[in-house]
From TrEMBL:
Pfam families from the UniProt entry: AIRS, AIRS_C
Sequence similarity: Belongs to the HypE family.
SUPFAM superfamilies: PurM C-terminal domain-like (SSF56042), PurM N-terminal domain-like (SSF55326)
UniProt protein name: Hydrogenase expression/formation protein HypE
Lineage: Bacteria, Bacillati, Actinomycetota, Actinomycetes, Kitasatosporales
Length: 329
């Protein structure tokens, strides 16, 4: 299960098995989406599979995730998502009513995100060979002229901004999966981020890096960026927007919120001179109202992420080995 968790084991699987087997310059970039040039157009192209358990959770469902996860990968390239493909893998015995409920949730999420489901596929597997419903989506979108967003563009001096409270999705999934109660219902942050990204690009097209911290949370996303750009990242731990209910749940369960998955947040690396204006624009958008500057990019300790604690100490924020909470997307 650790190999599917978005951490070090996942990276090893891609680096040693899939990348050598598939080859190709485009794949080697290993971004949230591939950047393609076709007929004079600059395209972003991404695919993702969704195996979340349970199928429905506070704040969303596997149908919402299947849309938002893919359109957010495109948005992290600055692309405006246009079309999706959708493949349903159904386990024998799942009710038609459940399939319909998921399909309607997926359709509603696509309309909200402004994308069209243009093609699809359905397969059915025998009882015991699935978990109700799995979904695969692929998406394609246009990258605007003058936009070049990729992990390699992070440079010392960049300011690190997170778009809002972290850790909500992973804790929401765990609470319903395990029947845990924390005194208040914690809802997933599942949302499509394309509109927020367009708001940021209206301020400046020179956004260096965007990443949605899904599996492996903030820790995995920042480590991947630091490694790709050969830079260091310094976080101010007391600036990380962790909701009290998430902090309390993580304390009870022995989890670190920086490693818990999100499905409606982004991390941005922007030039220092643009940071205040970008932050103000983000806070004016409904999906960025809780945005905060949480750190900076430095020349020291390239490839490493460190956090400065409230007590004045420093700790290394490693890439997680696997996933603290499997099957969260």
């Amino acid at each position: 299960m650790g190999h599917g968790g978005g951490g070090a084991l996942s990276a090893e699987l891609v680096e040693h098995i899939f990348a050598p087997a598939f080859g190709g310059r485009t794949l080697s970039a290993l971004g949230d989406s591939a950047h393609l040039e076709l007929g004079g157009a600059r395209l972003a192209f991404s695919t993702d599979s969704f195996v979340v358990r349970p199928l429905f959770f506070p704040g969303g469902s596997i149908g919402d995730l299947a849309v938002n996860g893919t359109v957010n990968d495109l948005a992290m390239s600055g692309a405006r998502a246009a079309y999706l493909s959708c493949g349903f893998i159904l386990e024998e015995g799942v009710s038609v009513a459940t399939v319909a409920r998921v399909a309607h949730a997926l359709g509603d999420a696509a309309r909200t995100a402004g994308v069209e489901v243009a093609t699809g596929d359905t397969k059915v597997v025998e009882t015991g060979h699935g978990d109700g419903i799995y979904i695969n989506t692929a998406g394609i979108g246009l990258i605007p002229d003058g936009v070049d967003i990729r992990p390699e563009r992070a440079v010392p001096g960049d300011v690190v901004i997170v778009s809002g409270p972290i850790g909500q999705h992973g804790v929401a999934i765990l609470s319903v999966r395990e029947g845990l109660e924390f005194g208040v219902e914690i809802q997933s942050d599942c949302a499509a981020l394309g509109g927020l990204v367009r708001t940021m690009l209206d301020v400046t097209k020179d956004v260096h890096v965007l990443r949605d911290p899904t599996r492996g949370g903030m820790a995995a996303a920042l480590n991947e960026i630091a490694k790709a750009a050969s830079v260091g990242v310094v976080l101010q731990e007391n600036r990380l927007p962790v909701p009290p209910e998430v902090a309390n749940a993580c304390a009870i369960l022995g989890l670190d919120p920086m490693y818990v998955a999100n499905e409606g947040k982004l991390v941005a690396f922007v030039p220092r001179e643009d940071a205040d204006a970008v932050l103000a624009a983000m806070r004016a958008h409904p999906l960025g109202s809780g945005a905060a500057i949480v750190g900076e990019c430095v020349a020291d300790h390239p490839g490493m992420v460190v956090a400065r604690t409230a007590l004045g100490g420093t700790r290394v924020v490693d890439l997680p080995l696997g996933e603290q909470l499997p099957r969260i997307c």
